[in-house]
Specification:
Oligomer: single chain
Distance between the termini: 68 Å
Radius of gyration: 26 Å
Strand content: 35-45%
């Protein structure tokens, strides 16, 4: 968005290239103060308490001499301590609905919200979603309406737009920093599953997480969530990231409707369209997603998308890569119809796509393996698109997955890990949990277990 300088009194219009010395007192005394006064009351400080369990090893055994002999087998009594952390949040509804980061309140046993006017409230966790790193809190205002920040359409911002970051860095109290939008659609940040961040050079430091990234018209552009730092203390180096408001809005909507967050799902396996592929498809430049396979009877299949199609845009918004496609689809309400632009047989085509969640077919049938066998202690379940989305497994849509392994169990002893996929047991193919039961039911003294881990097949051969 180009900044409209006539909206607020702190800026004056200028023409490109006409850099001049300020000629009036009004030009010299430009300030962000009017925007800060309008927006900062809607930004809150969040303090959390978490019970941390740890083992207290007697100081005698901390001596290197004893560690040499006892190593990791040192056992001490378990003790509890109270861990404290801080972050920020944004009031988005006048009845006390607050947005913050999932990692700010994760595992918290107590959440305290402090308003800009220093009033304190105990907060209730309404919804928390690790995939987007967002959480929704609610405070009881006893009918009092609170100041809010309205959402800005995050697709209308441009690189170079002025922004303010408001939060509580290092616990020093509410602080405002200014900067610009440095980049859009950042996808290699690694702090959330749905990666499509707004990058800013406005200073963001520890404690700013969950705070507001505000535009010059006083609206919420995003939720500050992460920084890039080259120092051990985690200080800002001018590269911060915010979750776009369009994604935040979908999480708020789910919280208000009182159900778990259900995101729309693309229903395809695809790869980024690089320059070599673009030339082969007859496109002038890279950008887009080449469809390699389509989930049968999924939303893409029903819409008529085929392997070999190139998805270029969602509702007129360009699709740059696989991450941006997932983001665009995930921000669309389930059952809503949208328009996709695809490239097929060297022609541009528009199709209607109905947003739908990932199906849970087959049912999980989650259970623990028991008995005298090398898999005992493993928790297994049937894979489905829904479980793959939940576990952030990408396009692993079928098979039997290990979701957890009990410590000191036979499965733990053979180094089985969560997210391993069971491929076969003693040459019996594994497609469903029932196949595991069938394979384990055969008496044998030898075991040949084939698993897929990190995309590679591994074989474990055991003798009892």
């Amino acid at each position: 968005m180009m900044v409209m300088f006539t909206i607020v009194p702190l800026l004056v219009s200028f023409s490109v290239g006409a850099q001049t010395v300020p000629s009036s007192k009004q030009q010299i005394s430009l300030s962000f103060s009017p925007i800060v006064k309008e927006t900062s009351p809607a930004v809150v400080n969040i303090f959390t308490k978490t019970i941390v369990r740890e083992r207290a090893v007697p100081s005698l055994f901390n001596d290197p001499f004893f560690k040499r002999f006892f190593g990791k087998n040192l056992q001490g009594s378990e003790r509890k301590r109270m861990g404290k952390s801080l972050g920020s949040g944004v009031i988005v509804r006048r009845n006390g609905l607050i947005v913050t980061n999932h990692h700010v309140i994760d595992k918290a046993t107590e959440i305290q919200v402090v308003l800009a006017d220093r009033r304190e409230f105990s907060a209730e966790l309404i919804l928390s979603d690790e995939g987007t790193d967002l959480a929704i809190l609610k405070i009881n205002t006893e009918g009092e309406e609170l100041p809010i920040l309205e959402f800005r359409d995050s697709d209308t911002t441009d690189v170079g737009d002025l922004v303010l970051a408001i939060g509580n860095p290092f616990g020093v109290g509410q602080t405002v920093t200014s900067g610009i939008v440095s980049a859009l659609a950042r996808t290699q940040v690694g702090v959330a599953d749905f990666q499509f961040f707004i990058q800013t050079d406005a200073a963001i430091n520890p404690g700013n997480s969950g705070g507001a990234l505000v535009t010059m018209d006083g609206k919420l552009l995003g939720i500050n969530t992460a920084i890039f730092s080259s120092s051990r203390n985690g200080g800002s180096v001018g590269i911060g990231f915010a979750i776009p408001a369009n994604m935040v809005r979908t999480v708020v909507r789910a919280a208000e409707e009182g159900h778990e967050l259900v995101r729309a799902w693309p229903g395809i396996v695809g790869q980024n369209l690089n320059s070599d592929l673009a030339q082969g498809f007859g496109l002038s430049r890279p950008g887009g997603v080449v469809v390699s396979s389509v989930y049968p009877q999924g939303p893409a299949d029903i819409a008529g998308i085929k392997a070999g199609d190139v998805i270029l845009a969602v509702e007129g918004k360009e699709v740059i890569n696989v991450e941006s496609l997932r983001f665009r689809i995930a921000t669309i309400p389930v059952n809503e119809q949208i328009e996709l632009e695809i490239w097929r047989e060297r022609k541009l085509k528009k199709i209607i796509y109905t947003a739908a969640p990932a199906p849970e077919v087959p049912a999980r049938n989650r259970r623990e393996v028991r008995g005298t066998n090398p898999l005992a202690g493993a928790i297994i379940a049937n894979l489905s698109p829904a479980l793959a989305e939940e576990k952030e497994l990408g396009n692993l849509w079928e098979g039997v997955i290990v979701t957890d392994v009990a410590r000191r169990s036979p499965a733990h002893q053979i180094s089985l890990q969560a997210h391993d996929i069971l491929v076969s047991l003693n040459d019996i193919p594994i497609h469903l949990v029932e196949d595991v039961d069938r394979a384990l039911g055969k008496k044998t003294s030898k075991w040949k277990i084939v698993i897929r881990r990190d995309g590679r097949l591994q074989t474990l051969e055991l003798k009892r």
